[in-house]
Each structure stands twice: as structure tokens, then as C-alpha cells.
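cron nightly-structures :: item 1 of 1
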Amino acid sequence: MSSRARAITRLILFALVIGVTVLGMLNVFGDNSAVKQQATEIVCGKPGCEAHLVKEQRTPFSHSYGFQASRQSHDLIEIECARKFVFVGAYQCENVTPAPH
């Protein structure tokens, strides 16, 4: 491989690493209000409800939320939201609450 081809390969690899890093940081530090609203609607079953967020965890790959359906409830409802294509695409949320024993 010539030195020019190596330099181009390094540049492409560098740009790819920087791009993935930026996308991961956006997933962790970006505005997540729409994702949080989507997770809340899964808990309530309808828009505009009042579920109480008690736990939030954000990683480059997914967001996890823990809700109580009401202030009197002690049951934790766990919702996990992930992007359709790892770092890009719309978030899709699902209820991952373990079944009661």
C-alpha cells in the first residue's frame, strides 16, 4: 500500500471515529425530552398523564427510565428506549419491567 493510500485510510478512519464519538455524546448529552415523553406515554397508556420519573440512565446506546404510576405506588415500571440503528434513527421505547413473582 502506498503512503498516499495509507494517509487517506487514516483520514477516513479518523473521521469515522470522530463521527461515532460525536453521535454517542449526542445520545448521552443531547435533549431527551421527546424520548422521556414517549416513555411516559408507555407507562400511562395515553398522552399527558402524570407518571413520576424516579430513575433515569442515559448511555450512548439506550436510555432507561424508572417510573411510579402514582406517588402512592411503590411498584417501579421500567422503560428502555433505544435508537433503531444504534447511534441514529428514531427512539423506540418498550416496557421491560420484570414480571412479579
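cron nightly-structures :: done
The chain has two helices and four strands.
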